[in-house]
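Target protein
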Amino acid sequence: MYTIVILHSGPAKTDKRLLIDLQAVYTCCMENYFARLLLTSELDDPIYFAKIHQQIADLEKQRIAHFNEHGPMNPQYVVVMSELNMAYLQARDTSSELEIAQQIYQTSLSLYDQEDERTLEALLALGLSYLDDNQLDEALGIATSLLALPWSQDSGSRYDLYIDALCFQADIQHAKQLYSQELVIRKHVLSLLEELAGSVSSQAVMARCGLAFCLEKMKKYRQALDHYLVVRSYLDSEEQFATEAEKIGLLVHIGRCYRKLGNFDDATVLYHWAHNQATKHFGAASTLAQKMKKLVGVIDTTQP
């Protein structure tokens, strides 16, 4: 749900390198809203499933070894725990993800001041883990406490944290299916990011995708389509920004908007294109290609 840079173990780090690593670990960003467009889970792929669980096993060994040698109250332990938190997130093991996030936050409280940016980012990560575990009241409490803090555009990276907290609040409203309230926040976030980083920045494009998905949920297909098309244009120019599965999912959502608006010709073209792409990149027997095959069959038999 949120992104933490994965840091691999290696030679002993200098203090400066460790500081850079910690900043990367603590830097939470808005949810990858492209992932919401996915038609199938990555865990359906046996290779990906095995890779993630092997990563968890390796990180658990690394965590225990570090704990036995250095104890838990040091920044490097937070780095290891943050990698483990991300791995559990990818494995959809939300209870373990939440347990690790709680430990990271408590350790951060011990290492830094309560108002320290690193502690606040650990608190946001904890809130996101509560959301992943569907504990919405706990998540909302953290979002409310974060947004009650004094924020200013002049505060640099702390203001980025404020925007992340706004996105977190919108994610909670989405989980509660309070789409009208979510929409207000999504529009505000997009406006802030366009002002700060430009309309074609990666952050603004990700926020636009979240906004489009909210509008689609509200059955405002024309508005959703307008935003989805901007996102697609960006992905055409920045080919590495999204996975092939996410791009296919985006095509399907665009096609769905066309279909809901009565444009069956364009919807049919997009569904067939998405099916071809799924077959090309993942194979005809893959879960994604099989799902696309069914969608193509539905639209071919139901269009006027």
Q: What stands out?
A: Confidence is low (pLDDT under 50) at residues 1-29. The two ends are 39 Å apart (CA to CA). DSSP finds 13 helices and no strands in the chain. Residues 243-303 form one domain.
